[in-house]
Specification:
The chain has 124 residues and is α+β, with helices and mostly antiparallel strands. It has helices at 13-20, 109-122, and strands at 32-34, 37-39, 45-47, 78-79, 82-83, 86-90.
Length: 124
């Protein structure tokens, strides 16, 4: 298996430290989710137990369609950031349905911290 690739746009000090140390490498979007990770179009695979999906300004949920999680209003029912029907899935930045003002840089902090803690518990 090739070495894992990672991509991030977080301006945090931790990111800057890792980027400077060449621990993080930008990569194109993977093309497939696998039971234990991801795969790119060229066949390169990387193990992953957690994926942080950052979609930008518009909600992008089509990649989750096979899970059949969307409610009648098009949202995924959540308890905090956790999808009710899929407890291994956490959503951030989808407006008030994933935390007050979570679609803003100012408002995403608390939901992001809560999601990070919950994901850490899931993978222990």
């Amino acid at each position: 298996m090739a070495s894992p690739r990672s991509a991030t746009s977080s301006p945090s000090r931790s990111y800057a430290r890792h980027a400077t140390a060449a621990c993080l490498k930008a990569a194109p979007m993977f093309t497939r989710l696998l039971p234990g990770g991801v795969e790119w179009a060229d066949g390169t695979r990387a193990e992953a137990d957690t994926i942080v999906w950052c979609t930008g300004f518009r909600p992008a949920l089509s990649h989750l369609a096979p899970l059949k999680l969307r409610e009648t209003r098009g949202h995924i029912l959540t308890a905090g950031t956790q999808a009710v029907a899929e407890p291994c899935l956490h959503l951030l930045g989808y407006g008030d349905w994933t935390g007050p003002a979570s679609a803003t840089l100012t408002g995403v902090g608390r939901p992001a911290r809560d999601a990070a803690r919950a994901v850490a518990e899931l993978v222990r």
